[in-house]
Model the fold of this input.
Amino acid sequence: MSDIERRCLELRSEVKGNRISGYASVFNERADIGPFLEVIARTAFDAVLADPATDVRAFLDHDSGKLLGRQSSSTLRLSQIAGACISRLICPTPAQDAMPAN
Done:
């Protein structure tokens, strides 16, 4: 059995050309994600950020057929600031094509 955990999140992002950057997660704030409320601890990403062998992947709509970027190919970069985990994606096509229309 796999230890993969999938979560839905609201991406607060900026799109420029083929780059998408924004908050992957905001710490210590309540998030209403369906039937429950969740608060992400400031230490939630520590192990992922510390282990260079971890290959985090970013998918559009959690669809594994719609890969936006991954750490192992340097098309996804994660970092942490005081209140959030930041993601930066470099998409192979213009990022506007990958983002759903509002």
In short: The first strand starts at residue 12 and ends at 16. The beta strands are 12-16, 19-26, 30-32, 37-39, 57-59, 67-70, 76-81, 84-90. The chain has a mean pLDDT of 79.
